[in-house]
Queue: 2 jobs
Job 1
Amino acid sequence: MEKAHDVLIRNLGEHTKLAAEDVAEIRALTFTQRDFAPNEDFIRQGDEPEHSALVVSGMVARYHLLGSGRRQYLAFHLSGDLPDSQGLFIDQMDHALCALGPATVAFIPHRELFIAFRRRPTFGQAVWRETLRDAAIFREAITNNSARPMQARMAHLCCELFYRARVAQLVRGNRCRVPISLTQLGETLGMAIATVNRTLAELRRTGTMDLREGELIVLKWRELQRLGDFNPAYLHLKPQLVR
Amino acid sequence: MEKAHDVLIRNLGEHTKLAAEDVAEIRALTFTQRDFAPNEDFIRQGDEPEHSALVVSGMVARYHLLGSGRRQYLAFHLSGDLPDSQGLFIDQMDHALCALGPATVAFIPHRELFIAFRRRPTFGQAVWRETLRDAAIFREAITNNSARPMQARMAHLCCELFYRARVAQLVRGNRCRVPISLTQLGETLGMAIATVNRTLAELRRTGTMDLREGELIVLKWRELQRLGDFNPAYLHLKPQLVR
DNA sequence: CGTCTTCTTGACCCTTTTCAAGCGCAGTGG
DNA sequence: CCACTGCGCTTGAAAAGGGTCAAGAAGACG
């Protein structure tokens, strides 16, 4: 199956200019692909990673597991993302990864990646950049969950997901798949499930956006952006066409 | 002045085994050193970085600036840290850096770093690792500010600062310098300044720790660790001796 | 000695959490 | 085919925790 390579090349190309040789090097990588059921874990806290994951389709989440059993979701990943590129130089995973809805993930041995990095430093830098973009998204999450009121948090998260989905060409019309439950939204944004519901209801009421049945519909993009104080600069992508 | 090289080598050595050639390569780097006053910015949001910073002494902070003028502090850095290694492959800074107390920072051109990375890939990987540890700290901050009650947040932050200070050999007895104001603590942990004060007063009252006049004193380390649900694994350092 | 900033504390109010109950739907097994 | 069950969503009412506001104390600095 060619798709794993395609989505990776597409994604890295969003921020790094890849030479034909880099593309060839990536196409030579051997991926092992696997399908996961919703909420199925594929990397656990404490694992010692020897492979890197690549989201081929569906959505994937990273989360911390707290002593109380509560989860804290940290980030979400769409097709083309390397959700555990962070594990490349790390002894033990400090967080877990799971499929959000049904998802297809491809794995590649670190060993093989390191060889490719040596042969094509640009490829290595592209992956490094990828990890830095990840970090920028984390920073924004700190700010979002610490400094913004509830509605703004929700709006910001949805802006980010929608924007990234558009870049990954996963938006059709004004909607994209976001197979996430209210409980998970709460564990992402640090709010109680009741508040999640009421916040979503309010955004629905004002006709700004609608998130239900695993689908996000953005009705007033600029308004949503304003509410969430969303500025996509932190995603460090090539400027995108915004409606 | 040799100190800049020393602290960098010490810091990278905490997680990466450097060969003599790597150390020599680092020693050959030309740093431009500068002193900064408390709260002085040295990198601003929107800057296009051409240099990397290295904290030589003192403490440095990274923050987001919100539309309202409020700041959200994202991370703190001690001597040896490369607080904007994130800027290496990034077009525009999405956050600012400032000195917390008086601080000395050394700068090195990206160009020179890239050359050194090519000559000594291990050095490049060490810096990459450094950026990944940064990201792990961000992740922990998301969890801290989203999922933990106020006292635990404070305890966790102080545990992290104290632990890292110890690794950087900045702890003497049970105390270390942390030149941070209540306002800044509030803008770090996402709490109102009154709450910051009350939380600190409570920790002081129970004799767990004391943070005042720019100095952190840890009186009951294990208790503080328990309160803050602090597990240093996420720092990805070599196991440290803990009292 | 006065002024400014930072810290401290109290009182009040409001947002959000918690708790509880009900609804709708999908899957299961009688 | 239809209870039964479990899960996720919805909503209301009560409770709590933290935010806001205001005023005073304690230093720091000129």
Job 2
Amino acid sequence: METGRTRAAIVARGVAVASVEGLEGLTIGRLAADLGMSKSGLLGHFGSKEALQLEVVDAAAAIFTREVADRATGTAPGLPRLRALCAAWVSYLEREVFPGGCFFIAAAAEFDDRAGPVRDAVAGLTALWERDLRIHVRLAVAAGDLPAGTDPDQVVFELGGVLMALNYGLRLRRDPGAPARARRALDQLIGTGPTVAARAGRAAPAARPPAA
Amino acid sequence: METGRTRAAIVARGVAVASVEGLEGLTIGRLAADLGMSKSGLLGHFGSKEALQLEVVDAAAAIFTREVADRATGTAPGLPRLRALCAAWVSYLEREVFPGGCFFIAAAAEFDDRAGPVRDAVAGLTALWERDLRIHVRLAVAAGDLPAGTDPDQVVFELGGVLMALNYGLRLRRDPGAPARARRALDQLIGTGPTVAARAGRAAPAARPPAA
DNA sequence: CCTACCGATCGGTAGG
DNA sequence: CCTACCGATCGGTAGG
């Protein structure tokens, strides 16, 4: 891994451009013009557009980790961590950490029907994030903070849906009320009520079995 | 509106290509080659790429209406219609009506940070669909089939999230279990239980007020 | 509907 | 890091 300043500047600019225009819309000529350098000078750092895209995806993952995952490390594993992760996730979209909204929601939509290393990288990173969430759902169930019988994959599926709806509400709908809706929906899924007993006593969304 | 067969064939092919490669990835040369005609012959039908994109978006909307909205018209307005619309929505993704998943989820993600007529068309059509859903949520509340105090916009927000999670689960995750998860999540939001009384008696997700 | 063409830009290479 | 260049493709036009 090189640590050159120029290289880092290229990748940083690439992340910003890709979050708005897409990873395919990130062209070498445009990026070179943005940074005041020649196309070949820029390409020399990476070798190919695909290699650049992969570095941009990795850099976006590092930003996501710093701006979302790392903000929750102070909380206890299980339900507190899960809530903190989701709160940080909403905040990350509210703060517009990437100028084009969630980098990975955009990249997932762009590459979900393609094949190749970029798709694999996006799928792998999102899978890691979902795994992290799932772990804390499991811990929450084990601790009795989520109802016994809760399906962790179902919770992660629904949490992802809420965040995609938030990204959509902010970017396409430009609805400033979207974060409040997302928080309200998250509250339904992983609660914010203070007592475990209160949650256990009511019909538990995540635990309810499929309708046959 | 022309009704030419060639023109219709171009648009139909354009819808399929755009659902996979994106509306920007739909190029005139590629489309012309697919259909065995010249670029200028193809472009003559529309005048510009943007005009073609707009026709493709409209054609996709017609397909969505036929494959989703129209399949629910036999049900009573209100909760039955809402449930039928959502069931048809899930089915439409399961059946892969578009080869690249939901045309409008993909188009929304692609154009949410751009300006211009294509973005406006996508935003307008999705707003119409959400309005349709909201109407039936309101009717359901008025009929007592959803709890009094239910926020229709909140329900529509969450329904959209479930469908985006389904599209993501099918396309990026390639998870055949995703439709079952979506149905289970929808069941939480708009129920499938047979009796209104049973729903009214339990904690109602859609009606719960924000956590201050 | 076609051929022929336009300038611009694409990703990438040669050679320094 | 650069200039200079490659063939391919982009959206679009002229003229028929």
